[in-house]
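JOB MANIFEST
job_type = single_chain_structure
chain_count = 1
residues = 365
[input]
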Amino acid sequence: MQLPNWLVTGGAGFIGSNFVRSVRRAGCARIINLDKLTYAGHLENLADLADDRDHVFVRGDIGDATLIDSLLREHQPAAIVNFAAESHVDRSITGPQEFIQTNVVGTHTLLQCALSYWKSLGGGRAAGFRFLHVSTDEVYGSLGPHDPPFTEDSQYRPNSPYAASKAAADHLVRAYHQTFGLATLTTNCSNNYGPYQHPEKLIPLMIENGRSGRPLPVYGDGRQVRDWLYVQDHCDALRLVLERGRAGETYNIGGDCECANLDIVSSLCRLLDDMYPKDAPHAKLIAHVADRPGHDRRYAIDASKMRRELGWHPRTGFDDGLACTLRWYAEHADWVAAVSTGAHERWIEANYVRRGPAAVNGGIK
C-alpha cells in the first residue's frame, strides 16, 4: 500500500526531528521535511535518515508562498504538520521581530497555501486532509502556586514576545477553521526534553556544563515550575491527534510532571555524580543569575482531554527520561560539538554569564 505524504515544517528542529523519526519508524507516512535551518534546526538531527527514500528534505521558509505552493502541488500531502517556529523565550526578548515574522506571518502564509491546496482536492482527499499546528502552553500565561492546570478553555495571557507570537498563530489557525472550514488541529504542549534538544535549553545546558565542570546558571531563585514531557511521548500524542483528533479542536499535551527548575538541576547533579564521581559533587557548580524579564512562575497542563478522547497518557517517568537524556548527550559529544557554534557560545555569554548574580533569600548567590 502506498504511504500517504505528510508535509512537516520545522522537521530539523528538536521536536520536529523526533517526530519525523517516530513517523518513519512506524512506517505510517512518507515525510516531506521543510526546514529553514536556523540556529535550532540542523541536518545533524536527521543524519540517521540520510538513506531513507521516504524522507525528503527541503531547505526553505514557511513564509515562502511560492515554495510552499510548489511542494503542495508536487507531493500532494494528506496532512501538514507545522513545527516551524522561533521558540526560545530568551531570544524573543532580545529579538522579537524574528518571532513575529516566523510565528505569525509565516504561519499565516502556510495557512493560506494550505487553504488553496485543500480547495483544489477532490471529495475524499479533501475530507481527509488535516493541518496540525504544534503550539505551547506558554500562550496561557502564568499560574499561581495553587491554581488549577491549564485546560483547552483557559484564557490566553501570553507574557513574552515568543508566547504572544504563538498565541497569534493559534488564533489564526482557529480562524481558518471557523471561517473557511479548513480541517485544523492545534496542540499546546508543556516543556519537552530529550535527545536532540539544542544545548542552550535548560536540561541540555546543565548536562553539558556539568560534564565539563562549568557553572550551572539558574535564573533567579530557580523555583519557576514547569510541566515536563519526554519528547517521544509528545510525538506519540501528535500522531494520535493527527490520525484521530476532531477537526477544529485543540488538545493540551502534558507530562503530568510539575517540577521546579532548581529541582531539575539538582536531580541532574546527582545523576552526574553517579556518572562522573571524581568530579562530585556537581551541585557546587550551581550559580544563581539575575532572572530574565517577565519570567512566568508556573505552568501546568491538564491533559485529560487527550486521555478521554484519544486514550493517550505519557509513558516515560521523569526520572527515567532524565537519565536517558543524560546518557544520550554523554554518548553524542560529536552532535553537541556540531550544533554548538561560536554564535551559541556568544549567546550563552550574553544571557547567563553577563547577567550577574541573583538575589536569593535576601542575599546574593
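[summary]
The first helix runs from residue 14 to 26.
Residues 221 and 362 are 11 Å apart (CA to CA).
exit_status = 0
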